[in-house]
Each structure stands twice: as C-alpha cells, then as structure tokens.
Amino acid sequence: MIKRTLYFGNPCRLSKKQDQLSVEIEKTIKSVPIEDIGMIILDNQQITITNAVLQSLVANNVAILTNDQRHLPLGLMLPLASHSTYTEKLRFQLDASVPLKKNLWQQTIKQKIQNQYLLLEQLGIDIEKMKYWASQVKSGDPDNYEARAAAYYGDSIFEIEFRRGRFGEPPNNILNYGYAILRAVVARSLVASGALPALGIHHINKYNAYCLADDIMEPYRPYVDRKVIEIMSLDSFNGELTTEIKRHLLEIPAMDILINNTKSPLMVGMQQTTSSLMQCFEGTSRKITYPDYI
To answer: How many domains, in total, are found in the chain?
Structure first.
C-alpha cells in the first residue's frame, strides 16, 4: 500500500488519539491512521506537535520533514533503527569492500544517465552523446561521465546552470524542493532496509548525514525533473515556490515508475531499490534494482 504524504502549511495542533494522528485546525478536528502515513512536511512556525505523535510517527518509520522561515526544507527526522536485525545489517554495510562500492556506483551512474537520456528523448532532444557516455561508465566512474552527462542534460532540459543548495533562481528553487522530498523518501526506505543513510557508496562528506541517500536517489532524479517541467508549463507558474507548486511536488512519492518491468508508485519501488542494495552488502546479490524511466 502506498503511504500518504501529508503537508501542513497553516497553524495547527498535531496530537495522538489512539492510533490516529489528530489534526486540529481552527477548532476543526480530522484524523488519519498513523500506519497509513509515509511522510509529513511541517511548513508553518505555529504548528504544535506532541511528543506522543513524534514517538508514534518515528516508530512507524514516517519521515518528518520540517521547513524553515522561508518555507524551504531544513531538517529530516527518521528512526535510529527500523529493521529488526539492524546491527547485523549495519555490519554488512560497514564491511562492504571498495570494489563492491565502485561497482554499485557504476550501476547507479549508468542507470542515472540512461534515465536522463530517456527523458531527453521524450522531449525531442538529441541523446547520442548521452547514450555513448552511459555505455562507457566503468567501475567507480573514474572518467566522470556523470559530470559530462549532467552538464549536457542540465543545459538541454532547463537551459540553466543548476546550483545545489536550498536557494536559487527558478527553477532551481523548485528542483531543490522536489529533490528534498525525494531524498526524504530514499532515507526513509534505507532505514527500513536496515541501512545507515550517512555512510555512502560514493558521496563522502563529514557534514552530510545522508550521503547514501544522495547516492541512491541519482537514477530517480529524472522523475523529479519531469514533475518540474510539468509545473513550469502551468499557466499559473511565475517562478515562485507557492503552495500550489508544493502541492504538485508532493505528488512525487506517488508518481508511477517502472521497476522490475512492473509499474509501481515511486515510494513503493524505492523499497525494492534499497532492499536490493542491502542484498548487495550482504553478498547475496551484485545488482541494485533501479527504475527504468517511463
């Protein structure tokens, strides 16, 4: 079952009543089963949330994303351990060899470039360079075909220089918000599979607690890009990150993807990806299950 993504942009009080999330807004109370929730986004300075709710959300592996005063993603809360054999699985991840991690990164970048050029092809943009780069990716991507593909892809699809970070000119602000949602979905799924999101297979940054999430989300980025393209085509789009735009971006976890030759909501398919990653760490598989862009 696809988990729900809830967005709170107005003052409200979130509490727990039995196994329900109770939402009180201007004396109106609604409730949602906590077991049905996958992600919550808190986007107002006047939201009150009880510790009982936080405990239940974390216990049910709900990703809690909180925004800052500029209504942009600031922090992510996840359970310390969501898998019953977390310590054992963490040991597998810690003991992963360098050749294995380089091979996993090769798979990740090859699939990322393939998904990028499939989106470009859908838009009628020449993809011959991209197809060649995807075929040439070696273990660890020592020739950095990821960067070559990213430069061509970014110039072709948005005609902008994409800058990472929380802020930026349109559509950077929209992309960053969408990627933050995707990152939360990945991190949540990694924890559910018993992985530590901070320990990446390629990304290494002592200030980043989600290096592995940043690794695994790479082949999924074109889905966010497609959503942003759809948003930019709206008559109401003026470059600002409005409530309407956020509503569209909140559809990302439920977007259809093709994984294992089967259509699946992105949040559900992500669990297949992170589960296959853990199997690679355990030595029972050598291949990560990534989506093929549709």
So the answer is: 2
